[in-house]
């Protein structure tokens, strides 16, 4: 009986082995991608990158004919996941879903075990979001200039809730402080949610938020926007960073898919084509729209130019703040 | 308002809602029972399914996974002393002791009943009091979180054992281990010795499995009796009289859990420990806690499940997720075109109430699913140890690896396992260390935030704006001393 089972198992294993090697043999001849692609997210579950990635990975298989699997690898402020992809084989089967601050700013604040510029190439900037400077509705600051005036009158008296040092809310605040020569009391919170809660509870005087997050609170009149990043106005009558004298490409969160440097051109082209095809996918645009995200795609080379620019801006900013 | 509630109630009574909830609960329980797999991961992976379902089907599915998962975590904690999450640590204390006494079925039953009761009561309370809770939540900021965490640590130290010095040594060790890695506020590396693997800190799972499961495994192995079973009998189910005896404890823990749920960022671990400590304090026989007391399991389980209701409040009323689980739920809501925030109840009140009512139904369904599956799970203890122990070791290592897919974690598991064995033989309780390790980082963070908020005017800040936190800080050593005196066993 026992021997029988072993024999049976052995036979089955042999059959399985043949089948696997046959598939592998066939696979070698096939084109990229012939196995699932892993998308590493260097952040925790439930964050905006996670949600965005769930939308992307549930639709992109239609255009790649392969699954794309999300792997969350948080740790060391994003370094863990990033270095994992930096060390992965450059075959297009391991990609990184990052953002501009981790990608280009962290190199100036931390001693990284990888070189972001030389170890990675951008595949696609999936979307971007401008940031808004916000105050609670009860705030005495009606305009951005009110806040600047108050900060000048009593340096450090205004508290600004952000989502962690050198994060998406910290960098625009730092740039604001540098450009307008003001001093805010920066209070860290563990993520944008807690920072927003601090603002609403009156623990913080000022904070920042992305339009997708602040929408319902703005509509219900609980908060007021003082300024938004970039050169173009987003809300009627609300000045932009450019108008408010805050220069540089700061205050934008770019969500970007990166591949290890050395990934073959034809592989990158295929991935770019799939991301381009997403733009016309109705389900994709609908789901992204509901998350409050745009679908403003930038392909590898175009984004690379922005990366170079970001790298310079961030270096100046970090030097100015930490000096 | 009441009309919306009634419409919502009717809306939730759908056969497909119930079916997906059953699927979610069952799946969540399995995932929760496997160490290394977290409900958070399961929810994140299955989130896209909810994108393509109706809101009243898709969101209950995710809620089902969440609720099933919390109970699932108690199963290995009770049966093989392997808590997969911090929330199950308190459960495993008396749960595993009951298993060794051959009462594993009773332990699982009381865990199930307490979980379901705690969760249902807190959900109903949340539905009725959602707007008052929303106001209350806004009263808690970093100073209050710091004060409550510090008080929790003091209470844990005071109530966990008779030898206060050993307890404090272990707790300080846990607090120190928690500082290894990148400092969460300033981004400075601490105690990493330049090793990249230590930059993300010491992960929790290898510590939990290492110090709780490995010493028990070692103990069974050293007995060298291969034909033995973990328990000789499968044991009987819980009797109604036993449930009634625990009922007061369950109610107390439910109240504690619900209260802790309204303070953002504290969560299940604190609730379970506080529920456990309170039950021990109230018991006429506190010395029985830790040696297989049904009330111990009931206290921990009711409290950690009662946290769930209030944690939904900031999400629903402000659109602010308090933790990762609610962040995933936020994604599910938003993808459905429901935007949590102040206007959600005005615009989509019926659907929201339907989802909340479905949450209560999920609890009741789980009572049935859990009750039917407990006999299957509890068979584990009837496996001969010569087979069971290798299986437990395999799950310990596999689970540790699956958690982060990082081989360094396996070394940590072995190290913590050896440490656990030594600590056990030297009669050092590892629980205070684990609690220090889990509660240390949020406490440190809240402390740093408080310092930044006070802006160099500490006295004015605490006296003028934060007298609640101040009061807790002043009271906590007194409470700790009182509890320690009361529970100190006569030498």
Descriptors:
heterodimer, A: 323 residues, alpha/beta, six-stranded mixed sheet, five-stranded mixed sheet, 13 helices, 47% helix, globular, B: 491 residues, mainly alpha, two-stranded antiparallel ribbon, 20 helices, 75% helix
What does this structure look like?
The complex is a heterodimer of chains A (323) and B (491). Chain A contains 13 helices and eleven strands. Chain A is globular and about 65 Å long. In chain A, strand 6, helix 8 (170-180) and strand 7 form a beta-alpha-beta unit. Residues 18-29 of chain A have low confidence and may be disordered. Chain A is of the alpha/beta class and 323 residues long. In chain A, helix 2 (48-59) packs antiparallel against helix 12 (282-291) and helix 5 runs parallel beside helix 13 (300-322). Chain A is 47% helix and 19% strand. With 491 residues, chain B is an all-alpha fold. Chain B has one domain. In chain B, 75% of the residues lie in helices and 1% in strands. Chain B has a two-stranded antiparallel sheet. The longest helix of chain B is centred in the C-terminal third of the chain and has 35 residues, at 344-378. Chain B is globular. The termini of chain B are far apart.
């Amino acid at each position: 009986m026992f021997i029988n089972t072993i024999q049976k198992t052995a036979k089955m294993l042999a059959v399985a082995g043949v089948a696997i090697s046959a598939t592998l043999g066939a696979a070698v001849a096939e084109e990229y991608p012939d196995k699932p692609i892993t998308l590493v997210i260097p952040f925790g579950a439930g964050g905006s990158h996670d949600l965005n990635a769930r939308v992307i990975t549930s639709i992109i298989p239609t255009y790649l004919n392969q699954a794309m699997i999300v792997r969350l690898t948080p740790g060391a402020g994003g370094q863990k996941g990033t270095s994992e992809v930096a060390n992965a084989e450059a075959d297009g089967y391991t990609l990184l879903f990052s953002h501009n601050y981790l990608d280009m700013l962290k190199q100036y604040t931390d001693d990284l075990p990888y070189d972001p510029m030389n170890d990675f190439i951008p595949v696609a900037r999936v979307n971007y979001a401008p940031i808004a400077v916000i105050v609670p509705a009860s705030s005495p600051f009606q305009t951005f200039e009110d806040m600047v005036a108050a900060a000048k009158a009593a340096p450090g008296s205004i508290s600004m809730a952000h989502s962690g040092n050198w994060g998406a809310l910290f960098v625009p605040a730092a740039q604001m402080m540098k450009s307008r020569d003001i001093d805010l009391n920066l209070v860290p919170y563990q993520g944008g949610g807690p920072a927003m809660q601090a603002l609403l509870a009156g623990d913080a005087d000022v904070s920042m938020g992305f339009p997708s997050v602040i929408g319902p609170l703005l509509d219900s009149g609980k908060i007021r926007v003082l300024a938004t990043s970039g050169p173009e106005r987003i809300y009627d009558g609300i000045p932009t960073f450019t108008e408010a004298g805050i220069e540089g490409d700061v205050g934008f969160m770019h969500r970007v898919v990166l591949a290890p440097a050395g990934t073959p051109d034809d592989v990158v082209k295929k991935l770019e084509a799939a991301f381009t095809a997403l733009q016309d996918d109705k389900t994709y645009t609908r789901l992204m729209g509901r998350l409050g995200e745009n679908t403003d795609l930038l392909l590898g080379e175009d984004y690379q130019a922005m990366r170079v620019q970001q790298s310079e801006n961030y270096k100046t900013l970090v030097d100015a703040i930490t000096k | 308002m009441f009309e919306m509630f009634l419409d919502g109630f009717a809306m939730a009574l759908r056969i497909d809602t119930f079916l997906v909830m059953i699927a979610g609960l069952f799946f969540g329980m399995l995932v929760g029972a496997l160490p290394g797999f977290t409900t958070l991961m399961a929810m994140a992976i299955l989130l896209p399914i909810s994108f393509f379902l109706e809101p009243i089907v898709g969101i209950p599915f995710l809620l089902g996974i969440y609720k099933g998962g919390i109970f699932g975590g108690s199963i290995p904690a009770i049966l093989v002393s392997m808590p997969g999450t911090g929330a199950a640590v308190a459960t495993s204390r008396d749960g595993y002791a009951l298993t060794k006494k051959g009462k594993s079925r009773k332990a699982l039953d009381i865990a199930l009943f307490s979980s379901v009761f705690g969760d249902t009561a807190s959900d109903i309370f949340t539905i009725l009091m959602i707007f008052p809770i929303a106001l209350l939540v806004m009263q808690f900021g970093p100073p209050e979180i710091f004060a409550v965490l510090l008080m929790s640590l003091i209470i844990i130290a005071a109530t966990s054992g008779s030898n206060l010095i050993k307890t404090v040594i272990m707790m300080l060790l846990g607090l120190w281990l928690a500082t290894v890695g990148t400092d969460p506020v300033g981004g400075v590396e601490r105690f990493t010795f330049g090793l990249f693997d230590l930059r993300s800190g010491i992960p929790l799972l290898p510590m939990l499995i290492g110090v709780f499961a490995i010493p028990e495994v070692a103990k069974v192995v050293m007995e060298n009796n291969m034909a033995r079973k973990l328990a000789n009998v499968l044991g009987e189910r819980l009797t109604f009289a036993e449930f009634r005896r625990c009922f007061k404890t369950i109610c107390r823990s439910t109240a504690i859990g619900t209260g802790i749920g309204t303070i953002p960022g504290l969560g299940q671990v604190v609730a379970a420990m506080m529920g456990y400590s309170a039950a021990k304090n109230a018991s006429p026989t506190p010395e029985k806690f830790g040696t297989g007391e049904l009330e111990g399991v009931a206290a921990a389980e009711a409290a950690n499940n009662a946290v769930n209701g209030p944690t939904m409040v900031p999400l629903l009323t402000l659109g602010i997720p308090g933790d990762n689980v609610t962040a995933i739920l936020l994604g599910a809501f938003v993808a459905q075109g429901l935007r949590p925030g102040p206007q959600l109840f005005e615009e989509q009140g019926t659907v929201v109430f339907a989802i909340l009512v479905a949450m209560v139904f999920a609890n009741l369904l789980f009572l049935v699913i859990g009750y039917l599956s407990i006999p299957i799970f509890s068979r584990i203890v009837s496996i001969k140890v010569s087979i069971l122990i290798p299986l437990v070791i395999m799950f310990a290592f596999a689970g540790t690896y699956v958690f982060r897919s990082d081989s360094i974690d396996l070394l940590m598991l072995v190290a913590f396992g050896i440490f656990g064995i030594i600590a056990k033989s030297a009669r050092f309780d590892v629980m205070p260390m684990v609690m220090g390790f889990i509660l240390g980082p949020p406490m440190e963070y809240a402390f740093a935030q408080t310092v930044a908020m006070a802006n160099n005017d500490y006295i004015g800040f605490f006296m003028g704006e934060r007298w609640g936190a101040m009061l807790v800080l002043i009271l906590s050593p007194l409470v700790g001393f009182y509890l320690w005196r009361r529970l100190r066993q006569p030498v």
